[in-house]
Amino acid sequence: MTIRVVLAAAALVVTGGVAAAEAMKMAVTTSFHNSGLADVLLPEIKADLGLEVHLLVVGTGQAIRLGEAGDVDAILVHSKKAEDAFVAGGFGTHRTEIMYNDFVLIGPMEDPAKIAGARSAAEALGAIAAAESQFVSRGDDSGTHKKELSLWAVSGEVERDVSWYREVGAGMGAALNTASGMNAYIMSDRASWLKFGNKGDLALLFAGDPVLFNQYAYLPVNADKHGHVRAGWAAKLEAWLVSARAKELIDGYQMNGEQLFTFNAK
């Protein structure tokens, strides 16, 4: 028996007679992971494509840095300005919109800052600042954090070095846990909030401002900058993510009868 045959036989023993799945790495936002959608999509991707997608779960800012360094093959994030800069810098080949939900403002059920009646998200944040109510920020350069900072700027409250504002430097789940423990206000994506199990005395108090629209996009890393990236598999994954099968799974993913994401790939 030749060495090649021996190695092939050993591989069959290890994989149980089935060829091992191909693999690629994708950096994704904590909100995508915390929502539970990854647990729905990844097994179907593996079944349909024979592709194991290994996730690096980080904030959007860190996901983009991983893509710039060529440490992943693609990224799935939610901050259009940062995504456009990623492509313009030659780090990503293009940007494809996949799905959306929205950001929401969460806070104590008694709503001491009275944000439930606000006319805009910026006005709601301004009310929190005026009341000096406790507010938890992710503080991690994520898409959620970037959106929050943009809203503070619009509200006129640009100074956040105050006792009532707490940056935790953590993902959405951990930040929500902190807010629950403090009975504080926080901005979250809707999917993470619906999936979150430790709500305590918190409630969804404000939503519906068009500025809270939350688009997720897929960006393959540019193989011209990083020749080792698995561009072929990144392209196959993209084709799956914009397919009718992905639409069925994304639109069908619900929590307590409420849809967490809406497919809008073109």
Q: What are the SSEs and their pairings?
A:
Layout: H1 3-15, E1 22-29, H2 30-34, H3 37-49, E2 51-58, H4 60-68, E3 74-77, H5 80-88, E4 96-108, H6 121-131, E5 135-137, H7 143-155, E6 165-167, H8 172-182, E7 185-189, H9 190-195, E8 202-206, E9 213-220, H10 231-241, H11 244-252, E10 254-255, E11 258-259, E12 262-263
Parallel strand pairs: 1-2, 1-3, 5-6, 5-7
Antiparallel strand pairs: 3-9, 4-7, 4-8, 4-9, 4-12, 10-11
Helix pairs in contact: 6-7
CATH 2nd-level architecture of the largest domain: 3-Layer(aba) Sandwich
Helix count, per DSSP?
11
- CATH homologous superfamily label of the largest domain: Periplasmic binding protein-like II
Helix content range:
40-55%
Gyration radius from CA atoms, angstroms: 21 Å
Task: Give me the strand/helix succession.
Answer: HEHHEHEHEHEHEHEHEEHHEEE
Structure characterization notes:
Strands 1, 2, 3, 4, 5, 6, 7, 8, 9 and 12 form a ten-stranded mixed beta sheet that branches. A two-stranded antiparallel sheet has the order 10-11. By secondary structure, the chain is of the alpha/beta class. α7 links the parallel β5 and β6. It has two domains: 128 residues, D-Maltodextrin-Binding Protein, domain 2; 111 residues, Periplasmic binding protein-like II (D-Maltodextrin-Binding Protein, domain 2), CATH 3.40.190. 40% of the residues are buried. 41% of the residues lie in helices and 24% in strands.
Question: What descriptors fit this protein?
Answer:
266 residues, alpha/beta, D-Maltodextrin-Binding Protein, domain 2, 2 domains, ten-stranded mixed β-sheet, two-stranded antiparallel sheet, 24% strand
